Amino acid sequence: MENRRTEVLLASYNGEKYIGQQLDSILGQTLPGIRILVSDDGSTDGTVEILKQYQRDNPGRIFLSGCPENETGDKTLEAGKADIPPAARNFFRLLSQADADYVLLSDQDDVWMQEKAERLLERMRDIETDGVPALVFSDMEVADCRLGQIAPSFFDYSHCDPTRLSLAELLVENPVTGGALMMNRPLLELVREMPAACFMHDWWIALCASAFGVISCVRRPLSLYRQHDANVLGAKASGSLEDLAGRPDRQAQVEENYRRMFAQAAAFGKMYGRQLTDGQRAVLRAFLALPLQSPAGRLRNIVRNHFYKSSKLQTMAMCFTIPRGVNW
User: What is the rounded CA–CA span in Å between residue 36 and residue 11?
Assistant: First the structure.
Protein backbone atom coordinates (compact mmCIF):
# COMPACT_ATOMS: atom_id res chain seq x y z
CA MET A 1 0.00 0.00 0.00
CA GLU A 2 2.84 2.42 0.79
CA ASN A 3 4.20 2.16 -2.77
CA ARG A 4 1.01 3.38 -4.39
CA ARG A 5 1.36 6.50 -6.53
CA THR A 6 -0.46 9.78 -6.06
CA GLU A 7 -0.92 12.29 -8.87
CA VAL A 8 -2.33 15.82 -9.02
CA LEU A 9 -4.02 16.94 -12.24
CA LEU A 10 -3.77 20.71 -12.65
CA ALA A 11 -5.64 22.51 -15.44
CA SER A 12 -4.20 25.92 -16.30
CA TYR A 13 -5.25 28.86 -18.42
CA ASN A 14 -3.89 32.40 -18.07
CA GLY A 15 -3.09 31.74 -14.41
CA GLU A 16 0.23 33.54 -14.02
CA LYS A 17 -1.03 35.60 -11.09
CA TYR A 18 -1.66 32.70 -8.71
CA ILE A 19 -0.36 29.43 -10.15
CA GLY A 20 3.05 29.67 -8.45
CA GLN A 21 1.43 29.76 -5.01
CA GLN A 22 -0.67 26.72 -5.83
CA LEU A 23 2.31 24.75 -7.16
CA ASP A 24 4.26 25.61 -4.01
CA SER A 25 1.41 24.35 -1.82
CA ILE A 26 1.20 21.04 -3.75
CA LEU A 27 4.97 20.53 -3.73
CA GLY A 28 4.95 21.22 0.03
CA GLN A 29 2.42 18.49 0.90
CA THR A 30 3.24 16.21 3.82
CA LEU A 31 2.42 13.20 1.61
CA PRO A 32 5.70 12.39 -0.17
CA GLY A 33 6.25 11.62 -3.84
CA ILE A 34 3.30 13.47 -5.36
CA ARG A 35 3.56 13.85 -9.14
CA ILE A 36 1.91 16.88 -10.82
CA LEU A 37 0.53 16.61 -14.36
CA VAL A 38 -0.39 19.99 -15.87
CA SER A 39 -2.46 20.66 -18.98
CA ASP A 40 -2.40 24.22 -20.28
CA ASP A 41 -5.27 25.30 -22.50
CA GLY A 42 -3.45 27.84 -24.65
CA SER A 43 -2.45 30.51 -22.14
CA THR A 44 -1.42 33.85 -23.64
CA ASP A 45 0.14 35.29 -20.48
CA GLY A 46 3.22 34.03 -18.63
CA THR A 47 1.65 30.83 -17.30
CA VAL A 48 3.57 28.42 -19.55
CA GLU A 49 6.91 30.06 -18.75
CA ILE A 50 6.17 29.76 -15.02
CA LEU A 51 5.25 26.08 -15.45
CA LYS A 52 8.44 25.35 -17.37
CA GLN A 53 10.54 27.04 -14.69
CA TYR A 54 8.85 24.99 -11.97
CA GLN A 55 9.48 21.87 -14.05
CA ARG A 56 13.19 22.71 -14.31
CA ASP A 57 13.40 23.43 -10.58
CA ASN A 58 11.57 20.21 -9.61
CA PRO A 59 12.83 17.42 -11.90
CA GLY A 60 10.68 14.32 -11.90
CA ARG A 61 7.82 16.05 -10.05
CA ILE A 62 6.05 18.20 -12.68
CA PHE A 63 5.03 17.07 -16.17
CA LEU A 64 3.51 19.40 -18.77
CA SER A 65 0.90 18.41 -21.34
CA GLY A 66 -0.30 20.69 -24.12
CA CYS A 67 2.03 23.48 -23.07
CA PRO A 68 4.51 24.21 -25.87
CA GLU A 69 4.04 27.51 -27.70
CA ASN A 70 0.34 28.02 -26.93
CA GLU A 71 -0.58 24.52 -28.09
CA THR A 72 -4.16 23.84 -27.01
CA GLY A 73 -3.96 20.12 -26.45
CA ASP A 74 -5.38 17.13 -28.27
CA LYS A 75 -8.26 18.52 -30.33
CA THR A 76 -9.48 15.03 -31.21
CA LEU A 77 -10.65 14.75 -27.62
CA GLU A 78 -12.65 17.96 -27.99
CA ALA A 79 -14.38 17.29 -31.30
CA GLY A 80 -18.14 17.36 -30.89
CA LYS A 81 -17.91 18.40 -27.23
CA ALA A 82 -19.46 21.85 -27.46
CA ASP A 83 -21.70 21.00 -24.48
CA ILE A 84 -18.70 20.72 -22.16
CA PRO A 85 -17.08 23.88 -20.70
CA PRO A 86 -13.45 24.50 -21.73
CA ALA A 87 -12.17 23.99 -18.17
CA ALA A 88 -13.94 20.61 -17.99
CA ARG A 89 -12.50 19.58 -21.37
CA ASN A 90 -9.05 20.41 -20.04
CA PHE A 91 -9.60 18.20 -16.99
CA PHE A 92 -10.93 15.34 -19.12
CA ARG A 93 -7.78 15.65 -21.22
CA LEU A 94 -5.78 15.21 -18.00
CA LEU A 95 -7.93 12.30 -16.83
CA SER A 96 -7.25 10.51 -20.12
CA GLN A 97 -3.50 10.77 -19.43
CA ALA A 98 -3.43 10.11 -15.67
CA ASP A 99 -1.57 7.04 -14.44
CA ALA A 100 -1.68 6.74 -10.66
CA ASP A 101 -3.41 4.82 -7.90
CA TYR A 102 -4.85 8.01 -6.38
CA VAL A 103 -5.66 11.20 -8.25
CA LEU A 104 -6.45 14.68 -6.98
CA LEU A 105 -7.70 17.57 -9.11
CA SER A 106 -6.35 21.08 -8.71
CA ASP A 107 -7.49 24.49 -9.82
CA GLN A 108 -4.68 26.91 -10.64
CA ASP A 109 -5.61 29.60 -8.15
CA ASP A 110 -6.31 27.77 -4.87
CA VAL A 111 -3.83 27.05 -2.08
CA TRP A 112 -3.72 23.68 -0.32
CA MET A 113 -3.07 23.19 3.37
CA GLN A 114 0.06 21.08 3.90
CA GLU A 115 -1.75 17.97 5.10
CA LYS A 116 -4.54 17.99 2.50
CA ALA A 117 -3.40 15.03 0.38
CA GLU A 118 -2.44 13.01 3.46
CA ARG A 119 -5.80 13.56 5.18
CA LEU A 120 -7.76 12.66 2.02
CA LEU A 121 -5.67 9.53 1.51
CA GLU A 122 -6.32 8.46 5.11
CA ARG A 123 -10.07 8.73 4.51
CA MET A 124 -9.74 6.97 1.16
CA ARG A 125 -8.03 4.01 2.78
CA ASP A 126 -10.81 3.85 5.37
CA ILE A 127 -13.57 3.48 2.77
CA GLU A 128 -12.12 1.80 -0.31
CA THR A 129 -12.27 -1.89 -1.17
CA ASP A 130 -10.58 -3.66 -4.06
CA GLY A 131 -12.04 -2.78 -7.45
CA VAL A 132 -14.71 -0.38 -6.12
CA PRO A 133 -14.69 3.24 -7.33
CA ALA A 134 -14.18 5.61 -4.40
CA LEU A 135 -14.21 9.38 -4.00
CA VAL A 136 -13.38 11.53 -0.99
CA PHE A 137 -13.71 15.29 -0.74
CA SER A 138 -13.30 17.98 1.87
CA ASP A 139 -14.61 21.33 2.97
CA MET A 140 -12.68 24.46 1.98
CA GLU A 141 -12.07 27.87 3.48
CA VAL A 142 -13.42 30.60 1.18
CA ALA A 143 -10.79 33.29 0.65
CA ASP A 144 -10.44 36.54 -1.28
CA CYS A 145 -7.82 37.19 -3.93
CA ARG A 146 -5.21 37.93 -1.23
CA LEU A 147 -6.21 34.79 0.72
CA GLY A 148 -8.03 36.77 3.39
CA GLN A 149 -10.86 34.76 4.87
CA ILE A 150 -14.36 35.33 3.46
CA ALA A 151 -15.88 32.33 5.24
CA PRO A 152 -14.36 29.49 7.29
CA SER A 153 -16.52 26.86 5.57
CA PHE A 154 -17.50 26.60 1.90
CA PHE A 155 -20.31 24.22 2.85
CA ASP A 156 -21.84 26.77 5.22
CA TYR A 157 -21.18 29.76 2.96
CA SER A 158 -22.84 28.17 -0.07
CA HIS A 159 -25.63 26.48 1.92
CA CYS A 160 -24.30 23.16 0.61
CA ASP A 161 -25.13 19.89 2.38
CA PRO A 162 -22.20 17.47 1.80
CA THR A 163 -24.29 14.49 2.98
CA ARG A 164 -26.47 14.71 -0.15
CA LEU A 165 -24.69 11.97 -2.06
CA SER A 166 -27.40 9.69 -3.47
CA LEU A 167 -27.76 9.47 -7.24
CA ALA A 168 -31.14 11.25 -7.09
CA GLU A 169 -29.72 14.15 -5.07
CA LEU A 170 -26.61 14.43 -7.23
CA LEU A 171 -28.66 14.62 -10.41
CA VAL A 172 -30.10 17.87 -9.02
CA GLU A 173 -27.13 19.46 -7.27
CA ASN A 174 -23.43 18.76 -6.79
CA PRO A 175 -21.75 19.24 -3.38
CA VAL A 176 -18.37 17.95 -4.62
CA THR A 177 -15.92 20.65 -5.76
CA GLY A 178 -13.23 19.37 -8.12
CA GLY A 179 -10.34 21.04 -6.33
CA ALA A 180 -11.37 19.34 -3.07
CA LEU A 181 -11.59 15.72 -4.25
CA MET A 182 -9.45 12.59 -4.46
CA MET A 183 -10.38 9.48 -6.47
CA ASN A 184 -8.96 5.99 -6.57
CA ARG A 185 -7.87 4.09 -9.68
CA PRO A 186 -11.20 2.27 -10.30
CA LEU A 187 -13.02 5.62 -10.38
CA LEU A 188 -10.32 7.11 -12.62
CA GLU A 189 -10.84 4.28 -15.12
CA LEU A 190 -14.59 4.95 -15.07
CA VAL A 191 -14.31 8.69 -15.81
CA ARG A 192 -11.44 8.77 -18.34
CA GLU A 193 -13.75 9.05 -21.35
CA MET A 194 -15.19 12.47 -22.07
CA PRO A 195 -19.03 12.35 -22.14
CA ALA A 196 -21.25 13.92 -24.78
CA ALA A 197 -22.28 16.60 -22.27
CA CYS A 198 -21.65 17.55 -18.67
CA PHE A 199 -22.29 20.60 -16.52
CA MET A 200 -18.77 20.38 -15.09
CA HIS A 201 -16.20 17.60 -14.73
CA ASP A 202 -16.52 17.39 -10.94
CA TRP A 203 -20.31 16.95 -11.13
CA TRP A 204 -19.85 14.14 -13.66
CA ILE A 205 -17.24 12.41 -11.48
CA ALA A 206 -19.52 12.66 -8.44
CA LEU A 207 -22.41 11.09 -10.40
CA CYS A 208 -20.20 8.16 -11.41
CA ALA A 209 -18.95 7.65 -7.86
CA SER A 210 -22.49 7.72 -6.47
CA ALA A 211 -23.88 5.29 -9.03
CA PHE A 212 -21.05 2.75 -8.98
CA GLY A 213 -19.01 3.25 -5.83
CA VAL A 214 -18.68 5.06 -2.51
CA ILE A 215 -18.23 8.70 -1.49
CA SER A 216 -17.06 10.15 1.82
CA CYS A 217 -16.62 13.71 3.02
CA VAL A 218 -13.92 15.13 5.29
CA ARG A 219 -15.76 17.94 7.02
CA ARG A 220 -12.67 20.03 7.82
CA PRO A 221 -11.33 22.64 5.36
CA LEU A 222 -8.18 21.39 3.64
CA SER A 223 -7.63 24.21 1.13
CA LEU A 224 -8.16 27.90 0.52
CA TYR A 225 -10.77 28.42 -2.22
CA ARG A 226 -9.67 31.70 -3.73
CA GLN A 227 -12.35 34.00 -5.14
CA HIS A 228 -11.49 36.55 -7.82
CA ASP A 229 -12.90 38.06 -11.02
CA ALA A 230 -11.68 35.23 -13.25
CA ASN A 231 -13.24 32.29 -11.34
CA VAL A 232 -15.02 29.89 -13.73
CA LEU A 233 -17.72 29.16 -11.16
CA GLY A 234 -16.62 30.13 -7.67
CA ALA A 235 -18.38 30.10 -4.31
CA LYS A 236 -21.83 31.64 -4.13
CA ALA A 237 -24.13 32.20 -1.17
CA SER A 238 -26.92 30.37 -2.98
CA GLY A 239 -30.23 29.12 -1.63
CA SER A 240 -31.10 32.31 0.26
CA LEU A 241 -34.18 34.48 -0.21
CA GLU A 242 -31.95 37.14 -1.77
CA ASP A 243 -30.55 34.62 -4.23
CA LEU A 244 -33.99 33.44 -5.28
CA ALA A 245 -35.28 37.02 -5.53
CA GLY A 246 -32.52 37.82 -8.00
CA ARG A 247 -33.36 34.94 -10.33
CA PRO A 248 -35.72 36.89 -12.61
CA ASP A 249 -32.82 39.22 -13.49
CA ARG A 250 -30.74 36.28 -14.67
CA GLN A 251 -33.49 34.15 -16.17
CA ALA A 252 -31.55 33.33 -19.32
CA GLN A 253 -28.66 31.94 -17.25
CA VAL A 254 -31.06 29.98 -15.02
CA GLU A 255 -32.65 28.36 -18.08
CA GLU A 256 -29.25 27.58 -19.58
CA ASN A 257 -28.14 25.97 -16.32
CA TYR A 258 -31.23 23.76 -16.33
CA ARG A 259 -30.58 22.80 -19.94
CA ARG A 260 -27.01 21.80 -19.12
CA MET A 261 -28.14 19.87 -16.05
CA PHE A 262 -30.62 17.79 -18.03
CA ALA A 263 -28.16 17.37 -20.92
CA GLN A 264 -25.69 15.94 -18.40
CA ALA A 265 -28.28 13.50 -17.05
CA ALA A 266 -29.18 12.36 -20.57
CA ALA A 267 -25.49 11.87 -21.42
CA PHE A 268 -25.00 9.91 -18.20
CA GLY A 269 -27.85 7.59 -19.14
CA LYS A 270 -26.48 7.14 -22.63
CA MET A 271 -22.98 6.28 -21.42
CA TYR A 272 -23.79 4.15 -18.38
CA GLY A 273 -27.46 3.14 -18.75
CA ARG A 274 -26.73 -0.57 -19.19
CA GLN A 275 -24.56 -0.61 -16.07
CA LEU A 276 -27.17 1.01 -13.84
CA THR A 277 -29.51 -1.00 -11.66
CA ASP A 278 -33.22 -1.08 -12.49
CA GLY A 279 -33.84 1.32 -9.62
CA GLN A 280 -31.18 3.75 -10.81
CA ARG A 281 -32.57 3.72 -14.36
CA ALA A 282 -36.03 4.47 -12.96
CA VAL A 283 -34.65 7.43 -11.00
CA LEU A 284 -32.90 8.76 -14.10
CA ARG A 285 -36.05 8.46 -16.22
CA ALA A 286 -38.07 10.26 -13.54
CA PHE A 287 -35.51 13.08 -13.41
CA LEU A 288 -35.54 13.55 -17.19
CA ALA A 289 -39.35 13.74 -17.07
CA LEU A 290 -39.35 16.86 -14.84
CA PRO A 291 -39.34 19.41 -17.73
CA LEU A 292 -42.42 17.74 -19.23
CA GLN A 293 -44.50 17.97 -16.07
CA SER A 294 -46.74 20.62 -14.51
CA PRO A 295 -45.59 22.29 -11.28
CA ALA A 296 -47.83 19.96 -9.28
CA GLY A 297 -46.53 16.94 -11.18
CA ARG A 298 -42.95 18.06 -10.57
CA LEU A 299 -43.59 18.37 -6.84
CA ARG A 300 -44.93 14.83 -6.68
CA ASN A 301 -41.97 13.58 -8.71
CA ILE A 302 -39.46 15.45 -6.52
CA VAL A 303 -40.95 14.07 -3.30
CA ARG A 304 -41.31 10.53 -4.64
CA ASN A 305 -37.72 10.33 -5.90
CA HIS A 306 -35.97 12.63 -3.40
CA PHE A 307 -34.78 15.16 -6.00
CA TYR A 308 -33.94 17.53 -3.18
CA LYS A 309 -31.52 20.44 -3.24
CA SER A 310 -29.68 21.56 -0.09
CA SER A 311 -32.13 24.46 0.27
CA LYS A 312 -35.85 23.78 0.70
CA LEU A 313 -36.52 27.08 -1.06
CA GLN A 314 -34.52 25.96 -4.09
CA THR A 315 -36.25 22.59 -4.10
CA MET A 316 -39.66 24.25 -4.18
CA ALA A 317 -38.47 26.74 -6.80
CA MET A 318 -37.67 23.88 -9.19
CA CYS A 319 -41.39 23.19 -9.52
CA PHE A 320 -41.78 26.56 -11.25
CA THR A 321 -38.40 27.54 -12.66
CA ILE A 322 -37.52 24.47 -14.75
CA PRO A 323 -38.38 25.56 -18.33
CA ARG A 324 -41.18 23.39 -19.67
CA GLY A 325 -40.02 20.99 -22.34
CA VAL A 326 -36.38 22.16 -22.04
CA ASN A 327 -34.45 20.83 -25.01
CA TRP A 328 -31.14 19.20 -24.20
Answer: 10
